[in-house]
Protein 1
Amino acid sequence: MNSSKLDQWFAIPSVAVGMGIFCNALWGTAFPFIKMGYRLFSIETTDTASIMCFAGVRFMMGGFLVFLLGSLIQGHLLPLPKGKALVGSIGLGLWMTTLQYTFYYSAVALLTGSMGGILNSTQSFMGVILAHFIYGQADRMTLPKALGCLLGFAGVLVVTLGDHGSGSAFGIFAMLAASFIMAASGPMNKSLGKMANSFSVCSINLAVGGLVMLLIGLAMGGSLTPQSPAALPVLLYLALVSGIGFWIWQLLMKNNPVSRIIMFGLIIPIVNVLLSALLNGEPLFEWNYLVALALVGVGIWLVNRPAPVKEKQAC
């Protein structure tokens, strides 16, 4: 399948909805598996250097998998972007992968899966607001979108009430910082997707960003030593999640309004809550989690519902 056919397919509204749900559900499984990976590689939550090594290897593997997938689908080795597209792809890797996930992985070590997932969902509302200022009338803020954003932030406030067990104010800050970086990456993804092959952009993004994280981790004295046969399959799964997820996200951003697509990030906390309870023994039926999930669910509906068609008055 060539790039133009992929673009046409991802621009179909029903396909965009289905792939948006699939992509974010896939990402939603990452949080509990990352925490599982820490245990399987015997990485302490305070061992920032080894955490960087873990993340770096994951994203480098993800970039390699995207390169293989793209080459197989297109029937030839992926072409490297040139000029501004190459510089932009490297910059995207440093911004979207290295910087975002430095904050994200720090937050994972300090927050419960449920708490972290819901805080991470704020990227959706940040993205809607940024799209309004960047694209103007083409992706403007409307009253339903504004109400959806307010309900989403209300959900974040609700989940942080009381003794939520996050254990760290820095963890909350780090996750919100990661969410902002992800939201601000939407327009960059959209622009680069029009300049170069989406597989190539995604592959360079992950590989470069992951390599920088690995080098930083090694320079800080980090290491990555599996303590169980299950460690490598978990790392490979996380690499697949990042590779497939980022490629789908790249195509969705390229061929659809940013505000419509980024709102599907609200699916992430729902998957996080379910898997965290199942895999890590964390509480599921906490009242503030349930209320927060209800609020973000209404928020995504408000932002994505079609605008009412105004009937023309008869002359």
Protein 2
Amino acid sequence: MRSRKPFLIFWPQYFDGKLSRSEGRRLPKNLAMEKVNLNDIVNAAQNLNYKYEIEQSLKYPRSWWDESGRILINTNGKKKSKVLKELARQIRKNRGKN
């Protein structure tokens, strides 16, 4: 088993405004949004200059029937909650451009 030491795991469900906290949402409602996919998180990580790895065929344990994938991000020692909020703001910014 390889080490994930500098990387933190981020699932698309963390950002989903339709989910409750017990179903996997990690953001406050005012930052959460609908239909976040892996590509949205990847684009946000690229814009924030984070190094990342994509694991596309994995399933979030709380919704094991949905093959959503996950992204591993090297946060350079930042707390996961801070990076999560940065990513959410960047996803909103990216969606505003379209």
Protein 3
Amino acid sequence: MPTILVVDDEASIRRTLREILEYEDFGVEEAVDGEEALVALGEDAYDLVILDVKMPKMDGMEVLETIAEEGYEVPVLMISGHGTIETAVESTKLGAFDFIEKPPDLNRLLVTVRNALDHGQLEVENRRMRQAITEQSTGDLPPIIGESAEIQEIKDTIQRVAPTEARVLVSGENGTGKELVAKWMHHKSGRAGEPMVEVNCAAIPSELIESELFGHEKGAFTGATEQRIGKFEQAHEGTLFLDEVGDMSLSAQAKVLRVLEENEIERVGGEHTIPVDVRVVAATNKDLMEEIEAGQFREDLYHRIGVILIDVPPLRNRREDIPLLTRHIAERVAQRNGLPPKDFSEEAIQRLQRYDWRGNVRELHNVVERLLILAENPVIEGDDIDRFVRAGADEGPTQDLIEAYDDFSDARDQFEKHFIQHKLHEHDWNVSQTAETIGIQRSHLYNKLNKYGLERGD
């Protein structure tokens, strides 16, 4: 049952309002002046405040202003026997839901009370939803791990740049964490409550990229059987992340440039422009200056998207971060898979630090997950690195692995056996899919299974 606080210095008005509201099954409490009302608001939660304007000690406008300043999230309905348009306008500006003159019309009062309660409940639900979304996104968003000077500089840049509207270009090798930098840029921005829409420009055929970005109208081209909303529209008031922007076709680059200049898009096959408010964060694993020299990327677009440049270093250039990264990844992998936590010995960490990590953080993540699943002891040792990673730092395959075979044919057969076994597991032992993936006929794959005695469950 909603509870309403009635604040008025006239006892007859309080009594009348109480009788009307209680008859409608509302809970009612009273306050004789503004000071008593603020004490009540500090002690209990109310669903609505009905507040008189003219009162001794502290009038209603002062109370309304204090409610706003103190952050009491409760709708306020102002009432007065001396109401003016100026008073009504001022109270609305201070956050009042509505203004009613005394004596109030019964029907209008009840309708306004119910509307104010519905509005207050909607505000509470929206606030809880926004908070849940923020908490969920923060919880799912991994931190940027590292104490190296390069990572500290990236974190500082995010802190300074994220609250602005500056466009950002993130560069770096595959697997370094460019997408994570982009997500933190969005999360720390004023657009965090709005969507972050991601587009992998390298994964979309050049003939479809414009439809993907800008949308299309029904019948715009063969196969366009219905209207499609593009990524720019989906990201309205939020952030658009253009991943692998260096792989975008020149025609699409020209249209993206026009959108960034004019803040409006036109769907493929459309006749009208649509305004969009989007912050663009782009990423690339290419040297865009080289692409510009080769005529593969527009220099004017580069300067549009690259107001702020962030280069994410490869993992081999910040080996001092590997211990922190390894233990952080191990903790997250264990929690996600319900595995017992495992630690890494100093020798194991040192061997990981010597590894070249051509796949960067993504490769480290895969290796740590493999170690947590396959290593038998609670502490992962250096021998486990040799056993499951199969390679040392810059030394190539370990000596033990090389010396395990004297005959080239045996070594080749063992590799082929484990390769096929791994691919079968990837495809849940679907022989047809596996054969297609590795590029051999299904009958040949069956021959290999018989040769090596491989069966489901191995």
Protein 4
Amino acid sequence: MDKETKLFALLSYCSVLCVVPLLKKKDDDFVLFHGRQGLALFLCEMVVFVASIILPSIMQPFLFIFGLFSLWGMFKALQGEKFKLPLIFPLSERLVL
């Protein structure tokens, strides 16, 4: 696996930039796997962010957890692994691209 593929997979976990790999490397299964997870993670982060405006003390730990998930996904992408993030992977399978 080349460095460019791993870089695009890593980019999948960088907030709104998760759409870049989905648009640029849509034919690469590895990048698509991480791109779908990154998009699902980003959508979850946005929902929790909006909810944290209303209930900050309850929702802020979830933002921290999702931040750790992003780092975990980046690490696995750089290792060249298709790792299924807990709670996020099932959501990513439901995304229609």
